[in-house]
Amino acid sequence: MDSAGKEREAVQLMAEAEKRVKASHSFLRGLFGGNTRIEEACEMYTRAANMFKMAKNWNAAGNAFCQAAKLHMQLQSKHDSATSFVDAGNAYKKADPQERGREREVERSM
């Protein structure tokens, strides 16, 4: 698969992950299995981030890793959240090694 195909697939994964997150916020989902949807969304965001990395779209990869990290925090999974924030910081560094503002923003989010 070429890099454009990987980016397309990553964008689709991001959209599907957003749908899962929104579906988890409904009242009945919150009572019955909302966390399962959020866990699935975390996995989708991480897969999308890795697809963006393969396509060398570092900013999009960093954004996807940040989304996964925020959901991990919501699930009280501190280690997974920290790992995703580190991955996001590394992706942002590759996007623009001179720009440290994004990296600091990621550190503050932790």
From TrEMBL:
Keywords: ER-Golgi transport, Protein transport, Transport. One of its GO terms (biological process) is regulation of synaptic vesicle priming. Belongs to the SNAP family. GO terms for cellular component: synaptobrevin 2-SNAP-25-syntaxin-1a complex; terminal bouton; vacuolar membrane. One of its GO terms (molecular function) is soluble NSF attachment protein activity. Residues 90-110 are annotated as: Disordered. The keyword Protein transport applies. InterPro entries: NSF_attach, TPR-like_helical_dom_sf. This is NSF attachment protein beta. Pfam families: SNAP (PF14938). It comes from the Eukaryota. The keyword NADP does not apply. Residues 93-110 have a biased composition (Basic and acidic residues). Gene3D superfamilies: Tetratricopeptide repeat domain.
